Amino acid sequence: MAPENKLYLASSNAGKLQEFLAIASGSRAGFSLGLLPGFAALPPFSEDAPTFAENAAGKALHASKFTEEAVCADDSGLVVRALDGDPGVRSARYAGPNATGGDNIAKLLHALTGKCQSERGAYFVCALAVARRGRVLAVVTNRADGQILESPRGSGGFGYDPVFYFPALGKTFAELSGEEKNLHSHRGKAFRRLSEVLPGML
User: Fold this and answer.
1) Rounded to 5 degrees, what angle do the CA atoms 66, 68, 71 make?
2) What residues are annotated to the active site?
3) pTM to 2 decimals?
4) DSSP labels, 31-44
5) Topology of 6-197 in CATH?
6) Where along the chain do its domains lie?
């Protein structure tokens, strides 16, 4: 795959782009990344599918109608076994449509009150989908396994990172360095997998 191929992120979030660029720097992606021009002005896409993969694919297909280039969309969230998979695809709005990260963590910890360590298993999921001109080219998912602590630790990251303990490193995701998180996170692993399957498709 020629390095001049372009892959747009279906987002207007510069922070998300920087995160993906940092992940891509450690792989031979073979394409350049950028934010989809004018994304903020596009008609909104309702992410109401029951799975991360369906939401990512739907968002990518929707955004691909507005550009000739390939578009990548993501959907990610936290799955807690003891809560029958919640927060799941509702992770960002677990405590309500305008919930903050702190609100969502508070609701999660309340829901797990009384659960012992063995009952607090959880994993982050990231689904990435690439579409071009109304056709899905690839969908990949990956995960990071851990446990939910009883109280937050660390000042980095976002979302549920302060309560997501990663046993392999003995830290929460909010205590990881950027390099550690990119190496071990669900998003980092999913993007590296996407970089492996995209050659020849763009």
Assistant:
1) 75
2) 75
3) 0.92
4) SEEEEPTTGGGSPP
5) Maf protein (3.90.950)
6) 6-197
